[in-house]
Specification:
The structure is a single chain. This protein has a domain of 95 residues. Helix content is 50%, strand content 13%. The chain is an alpha+beta fold. The longest helix has 33 residues.
Length: 216
């Protein structure tokens, strides 16, 4: 009996400290990485030179300030012309051109406010019929690919568990996906937790025919 109590208390303690430790480690990694941006400052105005010691998190403030100022400058006509000139310059460098424009297309798709990427959580049968998993709508097949697909298809991204940054890109018939009454953030938590953290049920699951209308 005493051994079971000790085991119970130990596991309860682990459930408290493990998430806290991992969170602290991730935050520490982010802060230390962003602190490297302090190397962009002249040595004369470096926090260690001004105050005599390092200030943890100063790089985070500097990084956020650089991002905000960059967005502010590129929001006007002159800034957009400078960005256009910069992209034309990069287009003349063979290897850099391929990497930069590939990354830019992905980032524009993911972070654009007018885009549809990762705006809907879906339920699909993968990797075989009868086995279901969560996927995200990314759009519709385009280019020459669309010419070889008979019927109405959608492009989806099926993330892996527990790391959703890797996954599989699939093109499936629209009739075979079910739109979920679930936010993208909730779906990501569900995937990362391997199904442990289930989002609350809001409504009765919709049939695929009704869900297809929402995907249009």
């Amino acid at each position: 009996m005493r051994r079971q109590l000790i085991k119970r208390y130990f596991l309860t303690g682990l459930l408290i400290w493990v998430p806290l430790s991992i969170t602290a480690w991730v935050l520490s990694l982010i802060v230390n990485t962003m602190d490297q941006s302090l190397l962009l400052l002249p040595k004369a105005i470096h926090p260690q030179t001004l105050f005599g010691f390092n200030i943890p998190g100063a790089g985070v403030i500097l990084t956020l300030a650089i991002i905000m100022v960059t967005g502010l400058l590129t929001a006007n006509f002159i800034g957009q012309r400078l960005v256009s000139w910069w992209e034309k310059l990069l287009a003349r460098i063979p290897v850099v051109n391929s990497i930069y424009h590939s990354v830019k297309q992905v980032s524009d798709t993911l972070f654009s406010s007018s885009g549809n990427a990762f705006r809907k959580a879906l339920l699909v049968q993968y990797p075989r019929a009868g086995t279901w998993t969560i996927a995200f709508l990314t759009g519709k097949p385009g280019g020459d690919v669309a010419n070889h697909l008979n019927g109405d298809y959608v492009s989806i991204y099926v993330p892996t568990t527990p790391n959703p940054t890797s996954g599989f890109f699939l093109m499936v018939p629209r009739s075979e996906v079910v739109e979920l009454d679930m936010d993208v953030d909730e779906a990501l938590k569900y995937i990362v937790s391997m199904g442990v953290v289930a989002p609350p049920a809001r409504t009765i699951p919709r049939l695929s025919t009704a869900s297809n209308k929402q995907l249009q």
